[in-house]
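Re: that backbone. Tokens:
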């Protein structure tokens, strides 16, 4: 469900002045999640109607509304909320783990989303570390196919942790989910709010590791991604 609104972000929709909407509730339990507070459904800190009023007041100063979580596609009122945001003239950027491909397809078909960032957690055979449902990898791969066929710009993100992720597993994940127009390798950073830094790592991902991994992907899986970007390293 809707949880809160951050009135200004320079990071959540790169290149755009954005407000960030947070939803609560997620079926994944990722040790490296930086919004662990929002994994379970929580009462909203403000009503969604208040968020829409604040967004209406900021028209002309903001360009975009980035919707993140939690898993936003679990919120049953998300289509109506995004329709109201679009009616205010905003660009909409959606973060998702690909857990509800049917809901994602509906949002895209209705023109409610302008850009999608989808997080892939790991190689498919390792998804049991993050989601108890064995069907989760199938749903994620279906969501990637939905994005490919939609015509809506998107990127696939993989957060690379020091302790959980092996380079070979990342390569398997990239081959499994591709081809994609842009693959983003994100550095993990332990910080307040991370679910389980003792499992994911107490140190940030070394930039050299991301660079080496990018070089391996370009050399060993060149058809999987048109571009490979490093972020946060």
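Recovered sequence:
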């Amino acid at each position: 469900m809707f949880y809160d609104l951050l009135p200004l972000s320079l990071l959540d929709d790169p290149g755009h002045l954005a407000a960030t909407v947070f939803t609560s509730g997620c079926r994944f339990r990722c040790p490296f999640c930086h919004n662990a507070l929002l994994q379970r459904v929580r009462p909203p800190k403000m009503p969604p109607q208040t968020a829409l009023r604040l967004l209406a007041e900021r028209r002309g100063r903001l360009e975009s509304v980035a919707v993140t979580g939690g898993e936003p596609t679990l919120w049953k009122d998300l289509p109506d909320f995004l329709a109201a945001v679009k009616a205010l003239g905003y660009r909409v950027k959606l973060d998702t783990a690909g857990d509800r491909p049917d809901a994602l397809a509906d949002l895209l078909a209705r023109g409610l989303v302008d850009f999608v960032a989808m997080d892939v957690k790991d190689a498919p055979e390792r998804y049991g570390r993050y989601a108890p449902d064995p069907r989760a990898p199938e749903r994620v791969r279906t969501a990637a196919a939905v994005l490919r066929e939609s015509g809506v710009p998107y990127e696939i993100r993989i957060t690379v942790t020091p302790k959980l992720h092996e380079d070979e597993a990342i390569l398997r994940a990239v081959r499994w989910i591709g081809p994609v127009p842009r693959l983003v390798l994100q550095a993990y950073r332990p910080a307040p709010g991370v679910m389980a830094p003792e499992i994911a790592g107490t140190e940030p991902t070394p930039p050299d590791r991301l660079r080496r991994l990018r070089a391996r992907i370009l050399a060993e899986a060149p058809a999987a991604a048109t571009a490979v970007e490093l972020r946060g390293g």
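The radius of gyration is 17 Å. The chain is about 30% helix and 20% strand.
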